[in-house]
Amino acid sequence: MQEKVYIYYTNDLHSNFDNWPQVTGFLKNAREAREAENQACWLLDIGDHVDRVHPIAEAFMGKANVQLMNDVGYDFATIGNNEGITMAHEDLHHLYDDADFQVVCTNLHSLTDDAPGWLHSAVQTQTESGIKVGIIGLTAPFNAFYELLDWHISAPMQELERHVAELKETTDIIILMSHLGLTEDQEIARRFKDIDVIIGGHTHHLLRSGETINNTIITAAGKHCAHAGEVVVTWDHNRKQVIDKKADVYEMATLAKDLNTEQTLNELMKKADDMLGEPIIELKTPIHVKWFQHTEIMAKLTETLKEWTEADAALLNSGLLLDQIPAGEVTLKDIHRICPHPINPCVVELDGDELTEIVRASLTKDLTELKLKGFGFRGEIIGKMIFAGIDVKTSWHDDGTEYVKAIYYNGSPLDTEQLFRVATADTFTFGRLLPEIAKSEVKDYFVPEFLRDLLAYTLRYKITSAD
């Protein structure tokens, strides 16, 4: 006798609720269809469901996301870095207190005295016919951030060594919910042949029909729930083994919306607006934002960053502010709309030569006009770099390109061998946007504050209502 086990999943929603009513309808209908056929079915989320870029996630600190997942009827979830490192310790500690689903994150550990009551290192479940399923969850080890928030992420491979061996003895099918990224998932499949299914996320990859390595099928459904995924595992009761695995994804935009979910989102949005209605300042005239020009608001925000981090110098890109700050009452909602990025302040240690290279790179069109997606940045382009603590003198070549003539620190030419503590957005510590920052051996991150918290402070204390 053969039996099919169905797993439906989402990953990397990032609080992008545009397709959420369709996702809800799809998942509910899938479950109803499977239950009508008396077939086993589970609903999973692979993390980064919460993203504080959205006002609902910001106002409710992720708890509204959990409510929406409860409404769908999820069975299991793991956490992504957006749940893990964009909230204060207590906010994550209580994020899933009211979850109707089990949260499995095998490599998340609290550095305080108590672990959250919702946290499971691994879980086991079974079908009505007795097929035993083991589920593991792993999240990406951004310990430079996690440990500042009193969490630790243990090495994924070490956790797998222990838990896969244990589950192999007690279960028939092993499923890994992996918020590690495609490359890591492929390596896991090569090393752990006893894992039957890896459902992935984090790197926003879309595997329409899955990818098989050794005995493991790997799948993922992209980002923002433009797609939701399905995995079908066929178990042979006579042979007592898995005989087939298939994966597929389904496009959400064209599906019918769940009207109750749409109404819930509208209600949550209204509540979020009220919750973010705290006034910051009353402006007589708007504050204009310009991505390619020096503006007073960006200069003052960069000064705030330097002072708040007690750095020698600071630099911020003008593209961080997405819109002008309107005249009249400015609220937390306005601040969130204008600076929605989950980006933390960071201080790196650089010598004068490295700082000079960063200033030069920041003037190039390649950087200022770069349309960046990712690394916490939720805007359009990088924009003009603004500095505090250093005085940058520039001029123009005949071809219209800007270049650095001189850089001064405390009124004297920049000493190329002197070490400086330079504050900036943590965005630049990743990838190769500004390699000198990314390669710095000293990186001090400031959490849980975001740059928008510094923007609110700047407006409160450095801008007058007449400005």
UniProtKB/TrEMBL annotation:
Q: Does the keyword Signal apply?
A: yes
The organism is: Lentibacillus persicus
Q: Which residues form the 5'-Nucleotidase C-terminal domain?
A: 289-427
UniProt-listed SUPFAM superfamilies = 5'-nucleotidase (syn. UDP-sugar hydrolase), C-terminal domain, Metallo-dependent phosphatases
Calcineurin-like phosphoesterase domain boundaries: 7-205
Q: Which Pfam families match?
A: 5_nucleotid_C (PF02872), Metallophos (PF00149)
One GO molecular-function annotation for this sequence?
A: nucleotide binding
Keywords per UniProt: Hydrolase, Nucleotide-binding, Signal
What family classification does the UniProt entry report for this protein? Belongs to the 5'-nucleotidase family.
One GO process term, biological-process aspect: nucleotide catabolic process
What name has this protein been given in UniProt?
Answer: 2',3'-cyclic-nucleotide 2'-phosphodiesterase/5'-or 3'-nucleotidase, 5'-nucleotidase family
